[in-house]
Structure formats: structure tokens, C-alpha cells
């Protein structure tokens, strides 16, 4: 049985208005200065995931379908395209984020599909799948910070991700707000732990911790109708 986790305090980081405003600024910066904007959790976190994916040659092929949830400026997928992955999709509920990611992708002369999609909409998410790899770096965190009904939103997110992942697929999640044990508990009804991708650790008060947690889940076989 999954243990309940304590909800996070709400923040503007969990609202669509915040991200629309943020990506409007980043679009202007990109047009004026060629600056692609912030890489969420820094480039090291992104590179760790890409390196891990590249090592899974038995499980993840170059032509397997990969989706990035809350893709932002799309740089995660651009780096995967540079590594030779060909079936890449990025979604975000912010039209401004998708506008930015499409502009960067076009200038890089790459082929990546970007769409405006609400992660919490069952119909929109079902229409996308299924995917061999579902990736999230920070989007589950943002949902968890929504000022209103974040618990229900997290539940919808987990159900929708389960629905869009292939039976033999991998769900890769990076969080700076939740620990490994909290993620395993929250996702435990529909997913089970495959592995934890090592991240830098720190020691404080005799205890060892991590600034971010990167975890890989596989699907539980449940009736998801």
C-alpha cells in the first residue's frame, strides 16, 4: 500500500500564467539575442538523462517514440535529435513555450514535433500515445505546486502518463521537490521502480541527500479503463 505524501505549498510556478509570461520574455530574448533560455535544473541534469538513455541500447532504439512532457524551450529533444533519435515529440500547455521550441528547432534544421497539450486532459493525452519513453524534467514538480487542488492534479497526471506509456515503455522523471521514496509512494499504484539515475549528493548533519532525484519507472499491469 502506498504511503500518503505531504502536499507542497502552492506557488505561482504551478500556474499557466507564470509560464506564459516567462516564455514570452524568452521568445523576445531569443529573437533579439539568440539566447535559447534556461535549461530547467541546469544542463548537467539534462545531460545525465541523455547519457543514460544512450546506454539503454537494448531497450531504447533510435526510432523508438519519445515524448517530453512540459518541454519548455525544447532543448532536451534537440539534444536527443543530435544523438540520432528520430521520433521525438514535445508537449507543453504554454503556447508561448511551443512557439519558442518550434523557432529553435527550425533554426537548428531538425525535425521534432511540438504541440500545445494539457497534460491533465485525458482526451488530449490519449490521442498522443503510446510512447516507448515518456520523459519529465520538472513538470510534475510544477503541477505539484499549483495553488488549487494540486493533489487531484497529480493524480490525473499519473493516470494520464500511465495511459500514454507503452506496456514495455520507460517513464523517466526528474524532480527537485520530491525524494525517491516520495515518488515511489506517489506513483506506486500504477508504476514500479526500475532504477534510479545517480545524481550529485551532499552531506548535511550526518545524512546524505540529493538536490534532484532522477528515477525510472515501468508500468504496473492494471486495468486502466
UniProtKB/TrEMBL annotation:
Domain of life the protein comes from: Eukaryota
Enzyme Commission number(s) from the entry: 2.1.1.-
SUPFAM superfamilies: S-adenosyl-L-methionine-dependent methyltransferases
Top EC class of this enzyme: transferase
Organism, as annotated: Anopheles atroparvus
Protein name: Protein-lysine N-methyltransferase
UniProt family annotation: Belongs to the class I-like SAM-binding methyltransferase superfamily. EFM4 family.
Entry keywords, A to Z: Cytoplasm, Methyltransferase, S-adenosyl-L-methionine, Transferase
Primary localization: cytoplasm
